[in-house]
Every structure is written in C-alpha cells, then in structure tokens.
Amino acid sequence: MKDWRYWLAEQRGTLLAFGIFIVMFTIYTSNHPAGFTANVVQTASNKGVLLAFVAMAQTLVVITAGIDLSVGMIFLLTNCLASWLVIGTGIETALGVVAVLGTGLLCGAINGAIVIYGRLQPIVTTIATGAVYFGIALLLRPFPGGSVNEDLADALTGRLFGVVPASLVALLAVVLVVWVPFSRSVLGRAAYAAGSSEMAAYMSGVPIRRGKFAAYALAGLLAAIGGLFLTFFTYTGEAAYASGNAYTLFSIAAVVLGGVSLFGGKGSAIGAIFGALAFRTIGDLLFVFDFDPLWQPLFQGVILLIAVSLGAFALFRVRNRLEWFL
Amino acid sequence: MDGAVPLFRMEGISKRYGGVRALEKAELSVISGSIHAILGENGAGKSTLIKVMAGVVAPDEGRMMLDGSEVTFASPAAANQTGIVCIFQELSLVPELSVADNIVISDPPKRFGMIDRKAQRRIAEEALARAGAADIHPLALVKDLPLSRRQMVEIAKALARKPRILILDEATSALTAADVAKIFGVLKRLRSEGLALLYISHRMNEIAELADQCTVYRNGRNVASYAAGSKSDNEVVELMIGREYSHIFPPKPVRAPATAAPVLEARKLSWTDRLDNISLSVGAGEVVGLGGLDGQGQRELLLAFFGVLRGLSGQILIDGKPVAIASPAKARGDRIGMALIPEDRKTEGLMLPMTVRENLSFAALDRLSRAGIIDRAAEQRLIDDMVALLAIKTAGLDIPVGALSGGNQQKVVIAKWLMRQPRIILLNDPTRGIDVATKQELYQLMRKLADQGAAILFYSTDYDELIGCCDRVLVLYDGAVKRELVGAEITERALIASALNIHGEEMPVGGMAKTPAGGMAKTPARGADA
Asked: How far is it, in rounded angstroms, from Cα A105 to Cα A224?
C-alpha cells in the first residue's frame, strides 16, 4: 500500500546527495563559459570518478560500522604498481590490470583479516596498514614516473560515441558489477547487519565475519580501481603522501554527504558516489566564479557542515529528548 | 508421535563463569508435541541452560542428545540448523534493517546468488500472518517499531525458520494482552503440529494456561519436574525460591488526610497526542500507581515529570510551587530531588560495560565530589550502604554491571538513584523480567521509602503489583486519567474495567478491544480463569 514511502525513507540520504550534486552541477555548468557541453561533462567526470571509487570503497567499510583510513594509500599503491605493470601488448596490459586489482583486493583482505580475526579496532589497524601500503608505494616509485598503456588510458578517459564520458560508464559498470551484487547478497546483508547490531546479527546466525571480510576486501578492490584510473589520467605513478591522505579524508566526507551513517548499518554506495561528485564540484564552482583556489578547503568544509546539518534537521522536531540518542 | 522418547535431552550440563556456578549437572528432557515450562528465579540457571541449548554458550561438561544421538553446537547457526530456534529475551533484531530483512536474516531466499526480494517479502508476510501480526509492514525498519511490535517480529522470525524445538525466553514480557492471546493460539497450534516448545516466563497464569510439563530450576540444578497443574502456585514458588513463601506485599499504612501541599503535582499536562490534560498529585509517604493498558501515556507522563519531553503544556508543581523542569539534570537536582527508574535498564539505566561501582555512583557524583574531585572514601561508604540495603549480589564492585543477573542489575539502577536520597521516585515498570524474590524485595523497599517520606509514582503492567503496593491507582486511557481508585477500590476487576474504559460491573474479560492508540493491555486477562 505505502511501499513507496518506505522506499523513499530508505533512500532519503541517497536522494539528498543526488539533489545536492544536481544543484551544484547545474550552477557550475550554467556559469561555465562553454556551458553544458560534452567536453565540460567529460572533464568533470574524469575528476569526479577518482573520489567516487575511493568513496565507494569507504562506504563498504563504514556500513560495517568500521572505517578504512588506508583507502587513500591503497589508491596510491595501486597507482604506482599500475605505472609499472599496465603496459605492453594487450595480454600484458590485461595481466597488469588483473595484478593491480588483485593487489588492491589483497590489501583490503589484509585489513579485514586483522580487524575481524585479530579483533583490532579498524581505525588503528588501517592507520598502520595504510602506512605500510604507502611505504611499498614509495619503494615502487621513489620518484614520480613510469608509464601506462596509452590506448587503454585514452579509451577509458575519453568519450563513448563522442558524447558519454567513458569514465562515467566505467563507474556505472563497477556499480553494477561490484556494488549491486554485494548489496543484494547474503554477505552484503551480513555487513549491514553487523554494522547495525553485531550482537543481534550473531544471535541470528548471520555470517558476520564473512560479511565484514567481504566488505573490507571489496573496499581494497574499489580503491585499486580508483588507483588504476588515476594512472590512466596521469600516465604516471606517484607516491604522493599528501594526496593519499586527502583522498582518505575526502572519502569520509563524501560518504557522510552521501547519507551513509558513520555508526554503520545504513546508507548506500550510490549515495556516496553522489557525495563524492558533489564534493568535487565545489572546486569547479570556485573556478567558474573566479575565486582563488586557496579558498577551496574552506568552502569544502562549509559545504560539508551544511550537508551534515541538513541530515540533522530532524533533531529539531524531536519532542522526546531521548530520541536524540537513538 | 511416540511421546515417551524425548526429542531432546540434556544430561549433566555444568557451566561456570569465573567463580560463579551457573549450571551444576542440570538435566532437561523435551518431548515432541508438548509445551514445557522452565521455572526458576533469576540466577537459577535458566538463561544459561537456554544459551547452551541454542549454541550461544558451550557447556563445561555434560552432553546433549537430539533424536537419541549426541550433538554439540559451535554457534547459534549450528543449533538453528538442527531445528532448535530460540527467541531471546534480549531482542535479536537488527534495527537498521527492515522487518522482512530481519525475518529471513539467517537464511535468506536466493536467486542467482543474490537475495530474492520478492520471495523474501512473501516469506515475511506469511510468517507475520502466522504469528498473528499481519498489521506490521514488512518494509518498515525495525528501529521504527515499538517494543511490543518488535517482539512480534521476533516471533515471526523464529517461525520462518521452521523450528522443531522453539524456545521462548520471556517472550511475552513486552507484549500487549491481545498479542499474548494471539501468540498463545499460535503456540498451541505449533504444539498440535508436533513441535516441542520450551516456555520461560515469570507469569504463573501464562504457564498455567499453556504448559503440559514444568521443570523448576534452582541454583543451577533442576529441582522438580511435574505435570502442569499438579502443584499450586504457592508450592511452585516455594520450589523456586527454596524458602517459605509468605506475604508478598508489605502492609499498607492507614493514611491520615494530607494537610501539607502534595510533593508532586501536575495540572492539565498535555503533550502531542500522547498526554491529554492530566492532573494528579502525590503526597509525601504515598505510593501512587499508574494503571491502564500498556502504551496509554504512562511512560510519557513519567518522562514529562523528568524533564525529557519538549513542548509540554500545563503545570508541574513541587511542594505546591510551579517549576519548569528542563532536563533530567534539573529534575534530579536538590531543589526538586526526583529520580526515575527507567523501563529499559540496559539502555536507559546502566552503562553495561562499566563497573558496578561506577554505575552506582554516576547519579550522585556531584554530591560525592569537591571541586570536581571524587571523594573516594565517601563514595565507598555510600556504595557499601546501598549494596547492603538492597542486598545486591555481585562478585565484586569492579566487575562490569552487565555480568550481574537481571534482578541485580535492576537493584543497581535503583540503588544508583537512592544514593541521592530522592524525595520523588518515579518507577517505570521496574519489575519487568525480574525474579519473584527480587520483586518482593522491591515491594518492601518501595514501602520503606514511602514511610521515610518519599512520594512514589509507580507504573506497572502487572495488576497484582498495583493492587498490592499502591495507596491509590490512577488508570490512564488514551493519554488521560480515566479513573482514580483509592484503597479497597483497587481490585483486579476495577483495574481491568477502567483500563478498558468500561464502567459496568460486568465486563468482557476475554475479548480485549483494540484501543484508539493501538496499544493493548500487557497483562493477559487474569479474570478469565477465575
């Protein structure tokens, strides 16, 4: 009868992020000298998908009520690795891609294994493993350099049929191949259940450990896809510490903007993707309005605060103070 | 069905937690097609027994036989697979997931490796209908449902797992009377379908109505098994507590007409659609009960006094003077001196992982400290007094409060507030899920505090308690006070009649009407078997 209402309530965070992104992007393109053209969309897409992939990675872990502070470093590590391996003939390139993605998966799996079987806290674990991953990235690329299969890179950063940005299509494909099956699988549900109430999930015989492990491992994979795309955009590998940290922090911001609860159990990677795209658009907005780029961090912070406050508006309507704590 | 061969047997099961002996060579036999009641005080080992059976806890020794062959369970999932399904007292629902998600959670229907949402919806609707809770929408999030509805979801979830042995651990403690009646119907049907049911409850009338066989546990052992109905309630209670069972309730003093202004008074309190023009007063030394069907605004009324609700209209007076109570911190302050013993001790009453000592002194820290430094000696003295006064059974003050039994946890909650020597004590169904002996101690304590001059407002879903403990009872219906019963007027009949908002002498006890607010009486109609 009222099925759609329940659906709407569930998707509220995602829809809000979608709305914020659309508004910001509309303002951006309508003030851009070139307007809403394929070129402008392609550039925006290429800038946005990197954070979108990393934010998706973060979402998976946050859903389990954990946090992954190593996503940015996995992103760098796989970038550096790709700048060595994703090159040569078709077969060699393909093997390189597989190796890069496998490395990301392995990094995520290590995080998961330590958190779940070692029973260490996610925040501590991923700070430590993140440092290790960065260290390996530095060994791989002490100085920026390397190269990548440019045919593949150009294909994936260009446009399909001259209109649709290929990077956006790739993002959609990853959503369909990784996120949708995960969120609808038993493991995905186990991850949500563990994030919402681990004890209730355990008492219900839910495969909590496998669910959480899958979430961490897939987070590594998604961060690696991000790292791969970074290589496609830059044609090089670089172990840039500041950049890795920024991606980690921005991924958390994007996740929050996207309506994913940091307490776990609630939210979707789709929301996080729109959160990431919206977050990236802030810089573009400053550009079209001729602000000094130095203003960017300040504006990003303000937008983040506003978005989070929007989510908290419901608290003003609470008439029973105990509901503040639920 | 060959009723003589037990479907499930536990032999010589022992379990220790540190130095505490929870089970000591306990035995249990369960037969198909019967309802087996498990009785015993809190701490008698019932919970541990159930946990062993459901694969949550591994026993130190002993063995379990299912269909004549020995079994061991490494996890709740393993127990589920053999058909042993338990509905725990602590709800095992995942709050952020939908009702349907929760119902199928242990074994969701799959299609191409993904969860089949259509099939899931169908299973959930069937299970809800089977549990008599078809009014719950399968897409609703569990966290948005009130406690009684969640409990129905919990039962539907158990049924969806097609159990052979179904364990209900205090499963009705949060339910409304209409739900209890439905559940009893469901349980009887399951029995006729050949299931074995284990029923744990503190409510003797429920056991009398349902059970075929009863086993009483005491100090971790089974002390008696008998056919239901072959022992009187008094005999059973004696078996449980192992001592003479005499007056449950302390005598009520004869009260002189009040001369001073009442300690606590409400004038025309209203709040959203939950409280409607409530006026009441509680004098020093008085125990005033709140009765009525569950969910008629009793809880909100207590929260209103305690400064939790916003947008309250009307007036609250303390000692005859109007006050604005903006927060619990203000309510408990010296000027007002109020304490609220909350409904859910696990979330609102205690910090479970923190120690008994810390929990006890939380509410009184401001009184025990100077310039922000806690006077440890004074704290220790006060804590010792309280532990002695309430006879709290704990292995030590520095163990997590979560390790105590339910009754002792509740004592800690009460002690914590008594440390402030409150003048006004609000109690929100404080005896829910605690054992007979602890209940009696609480009744005595309540009267003692009243005799010392406290004003007590006591909400209970158990009519016996209201009859036994209260000088006056206000019956709420749909957020308003419908009737005030004084002294000898407080009878079960009067309570039930006014709870249903019926004013005749004769009233239909069996068919409890649904109220406008959707809430129903929590206590099953006891008049029915009289």
From this structure: 8
What is the distance in angstroms between the Cα of A161 and the nearest Cα belonging to chain B? 33
Residues of A in contact with B94 (CB under 8 A): 192-193, 196-197, 200-201, 204, 265
Nearest to B95 among A10, A185, A197 (CB): A197
B434: in domain: yes
Range of the domain at A227: 50-255+263-270
Residues B426, B415 share a domain: no
Answer yes or no: is pLDDT of A291 > 90.
no
- The backbone torsions φ and ψ at residue B36, rounded to the nearest 5 degrees and listed phi first, read -115, 115
Contact A185 B76 (CB under 8 A): no
Last residue of a domain, one of B208, B241, B274: B241
**pTM for this predicted structure:** 0.73
**Measured distance CA(A251)–CA(A176) in Å, rounded:** 20
* pLDDT tens sequence across B131-150: 888 889 999 999 888 777 88
Domain carrying residue B273 = 264-337+422-529
- CB atoms A189 and B88 under 8 Å: no
Domain assignment present for residue B437? The answer is: yes
Q: Kindly state whether residue B232 falls inside one of the protein's structural domains.
A: yes
Q: What is the count of structural domains for chain A?
A: 1
Residues B187 and B202 both lie in one domain? yes
Q: Could you tell me if residue A217 is inside a domain?
A: yes
3 state SS for B83-142? CEEEECCCCCCCCCCEHHHHHCCCCCCEECCEECHHHHHHHHHHHHHHCCCCCCCCCCEH
Q: Does the beta-carbon distance from B76 to A321 stay under 8 Å? A: no
Burial of A119 (0-12, 13-18, 19+ CB in 10 A): exposed
B96 touches chain A (CB under 8 A): yes
Q: Does A321 touch chain B (CB under 8 A)?
A: yes
CA B198 to each of CA A37, B186, B189, B524: distance values in angstroms, whole numbers, following the listed order: 69, 14, 14, 19
Residue B288 lies in a domain: yes
Among B106, B303, B308, beta carbon nearest to A204:
B106
Among all residues of chain A, which has the CA nearest to that of B326? A321
Q: Is B40 left (phi over 0), alpha (psi -120 to 50) or beta?
A: left
The residues with which B166 forms a beta bridge, in sequence order, are: B85, B197
> How many angstroms separate the CA atoms of B58 and B15, rounded?
8
Tokens at B41, concatenated: 């005080």
- Last residue of one domain, picked from the residues B387, B421, B455: B421
Q: What is the pLDDT tens value at each position of chain B, 530 positions in all?
A: 444 678 999 999 998 876 567 888 999 999 999 999 998 765 678 888 988 998 888 999 999 999 888 999 988 888 888 999 988 766 688 888 999 999 998 888 988 888 898 999 999 999 999 888 888 999 999 988 877 788 889 889 998 888 999 998 877 766 777 778 888 888 898 899 889 999 987 667 788 888 999 998 887 888 889 998 888 776 776 777 654 444 478 888 877 666 778 999 999 999 987 899 999 999 999 999 998 877 788 999 999 999 989 889 999 999 999 999 988 888 888 889 999 998 777 777 888 888 888 888 888 888 888 888 888 888 888 888 888 888 888 888 888 888 888 888 888 999 988 888 899 999 998 887 677 788 888 899 999 999 999 999 999 877 778 888 999 999 998 889 989 999 888 887 787 777 766 654 443 443 333 334 333 333 333 333 33
User: Chain A interface, mutation test: which of B97, B142, B299, most A Cβ atoms within 10 Å?
Assistant: B97
Whether B107 and B127 map to the same domain: the answer is yes
Per-residue model confidence as pLDDT tens digits over A35-89: 888 888 888 898 899 999 999 999 999 999 999 999 999 999 999 999 999 988 8
Bridge-based pairing state of the strands B84-87 and B165-169: parallel
Structural domain tally of chain B? Answer: 3
Chain B residue numbers with beta carbons less than 8 Å from the beta carbon of A205 are 75-77, 80, 106
